[in-house]
Amino acid sequence: MKKAIIVGATSGIGRELAKLYANSGWLVGATGRRQDLLYSLQLEYPNNIITECFDVTSSTSISHIKLLIEKLNGLDLLIYNSGYGDVSEVLDIKLDRTTVDTNVNGFIEIVNFTFNYFHHQGYGQLATTSSLASIRGNSYAPAYSASKAFQSIYLEGLHMRSKKLEAEIYITDIQPGHVDTNMSKGNARFWVSPPEKAAKQIYQAIDKRKWRVYITQRWWLVAQALKWMPDFIYHRLG
Ligand SMILES: NC(=O)c1ccc[n+]([C@@H]2O[C@H](COP(=O)([O-])OP(=O)(O)OC[C@H]3O[C@@H](n4cnc5c(N)ncnc54)[C@H](OP(=O)(O)O)[C@@H]3O)[C@@H](O)[C@H]2O)c1
User: Fold this and answer.
1) How much distance in Å is there from the Cα of 166 to the middle of ligand 1?
2) Which domains occur in the chain, in start order?
3) Residue with the nearest Cα to atom 19 of ligand 1?
4) Cβ density class 134-148: b for 16+ within 10 Å, e for less
5) Cα of 81 from ligand 1 centre, angstroms
6) What is d(CA 56, CA 79) in angstroms, rounded to the nearest whole number?
7) Best probe residue, ligand 1, of 144, 183, 189 (max atoms within 8 Å of C-beta)
8) Contacts of 178 (CB under 8 A, 6+ apart)
9) What confidence tier does 188 reach under pLDDT thresholds 50, 70, 90?
10) Rounded CA separation 235/209 (Å)
11) CA 231 to centroid of ligand 1, rounded, Å
């Protein structure tokens, strides 16, 4: 039985991923802060889901990950999916701090630990739900886009590192566009995907060991437009 940890599996994309891996016969370690939602997930999949309740911004996050690996009796895949971000008209320091604590500091603790764990073990897969927002700055959520850029750039470094080490460690940088969850906000949304569809495409990309994937796939077009758009045009978009 293959073993996966999904960090941030209480709602949205992460919860759908946990169900998909459990339905595919994996043993899943699901995490998040909302104990009631973890409990309901475990009740639904008593033989395939084990839970661990913790905050990724706490200093004890790695102890929880270690405990979960023990409970699972090994680890083949870890998906860092926990994320925070919100839009704000004012530049709110509290919002920015929470964003960086969750998407940068919490991320680096767990992803750094897991890469080294897999290196020691000799194999493993590591994926993170970054965002298309990682590609350019964003005036409404500058900390969010910057934090997602940090994730994607860090993962690219780990991808190159595993190649250099000739290690059997596969990295996947997941960049969703709009997915219909609590986090997705704004009136100008388009190509909004249900979380079930997003999770299915993420599952397939990880299975194929893709290094980077846009969710849903047609967001590749937007990613290319964002990458190549000259500053003088992009900066007028708001
Ligand atoms: N929805 C979109 O359109 C979209 C687009 C691009 C990227 N993404 C990314 O996709 C990921 C999943 O988001 P979602 O859209 O599925 O939204 P969501 O339903 O709000 O899920 C967010 C998940 O992150 C967990 N989380 C947040 N802060 C945490 C903390 N301090 N400690 C532990 N877990 C924490 C939440 O669990 P608890 O609250 O229970 O702790 C929850 O499971 C995020 O990284 C987000 O940035 C989403």
Assistant:
1) 32
2) 3-234 (3.40.50.720)
3) 12
4) bbeebeebebbbbbb
5) 6
6) 13
7) 183
8) 184, 189, 190, 191, 192, 193
9) confident
10) 35
11) 30
Q: Where are the beta strands (DSSP E) in the chain?
A: 3-7, 27-32, 49-53, 77-80, 123-129, 168-176, 212-215
Please tell me the number of Cα atoms within 13 Å of 173 on its side-chain side: 20
Q: How far is CA 145 from CA 14, 17, 45, 177, 212, in A?
A: 20, 23, 35, 12, 17
CA of 82 to the centre of ligand 1 (A): 4
Q: Is the peptide bond before 128 cis (omega within 30 degrees of 0)?
A: no
Q: Check pocket membership of 73 for ligand 1, CB cut-off 6 A.
A: no
Cβ count near 150 (within 10 Å): 17
Give the atom of ligand 1 at the shortest distance from the alpha carbon of 11: 19
Digit-coded pLDDT (tens) for 91-115: 999 999 999 999 999 999 999 999 9
The preferred substitution site among 10, 52, 55, 150 for testing ligand 1, maximizing ligand atoms within 8 Å of CB, is 10
pLDDT digits (tens, 9 = 90+) for 49-77: 999 999 999 999 999 999 999 999 999 99
61 lines ligand 1 (CB under 6 A): no
Going 162 to 110 to 2 to 74, the CA torsion angle's sign is positive
Q: Which of 181, 190, 196, 197 to mutate to test the pocket of ligand 1 (most atoms within 8 A of CB)?
A: 181
Token pair for 36? 């009631």
